[in-house]
Amino acid sequence: MIVAFSVTPLGVGEDVGEYVADAVRVVRESGLPNRTDAMFTSVEGEWDEVMDVVRRAVAAVEARAPRVSLVLKADIRPGVTDGLTTKVETVERHLAGE
């Protein structure tokens, strides 16, 4: 399963980078495969472990912000591993004309 999620603190002003870094730190310390881009952090693993990481990432932001927004999208596909890499590689192959 791959989950792409975004945690946004509300009520803390416009500069939210340090709060988002708290959430990303939780993801990176989890040991699960992950990627962060300008909009989302994606994490891959089994349902319970991924959702636990998301819960803890939200809690890290919630500890410092009066309100938190969570956007989450999940690709639930049993038996698939390394989806974070293989999905992108497939698109790149098509772009290269293979």
TrEMBL record:
Family: Belongs to the UPF0045 family.
Domain Thiamine-binding protein: 3-92
Highest rank taxon of the organism: Bacteria
Stated name of the protein: MTH1187 family thiamine-binding protein
Listed PANTHER family: UPF0045 PROTEIN ECM15 (PTHR33777:SF1)
Organism name: Streptomyces andamanensis
